[in-house]
UniProtKB/TrEMBL annotation:
It comes from the Bacteria. Keywords: Signal. This is EF hand. It comes from Mesorhizobium qingshengii. SUPFAM superfamilies: EF-hand (SSF47473). PROSITE patterns: EF_HAND_1 (PS00018). Residues 124-159 are annotated as: Disordered. Residues 124-151 have a biased composition (Basic and acidic residues). Residues 1-24 form the signal peptide.
Amino acid sequence: MRKTTKLALAFVALAGAVGTTAYAENNASAKIREGMMMRLNKAMSDSDGTITFDQFSDAMDARLKKLVADNGGKLTVAQLADALEKARFERMAKRIIARYDSKGDGTLTTDDITSREKKVFAMLDRNNDGKIEKSELPKGDRFGRHRKSDDDGNGGDMQ
């Protein structure tokens, strides 16, 4: 396999992982609000359409309260950061495994990775000659994201 092909495949794998991370970080606050509203709506639907402070409190930050309780009633910055980092990376790991897991068994194998790479390679090899040429690579800054020209000629905003 030529060095440029290896580099292209490595780029594809890296772009997928980085893209997932960037997307997750950009939507974090919206997801937090959405989760909060879902918990409040559930609490209201479980009662008569109103909730007490205790029901509100239970619905809001049950995981945070559990972390505090699990750590003797006090939670340090380091403990919270570790828990948040672990949760974030677990979500990322689930998305990556879901993307690559060809058998649907929740595990990642070398065969799964190779299968995914073959699919991406086939997608990029538009003329089906078994090689990816520079002209076959997506244009733009990232896969699926292209620059749009604007009137002032500075390249425009990302699409």
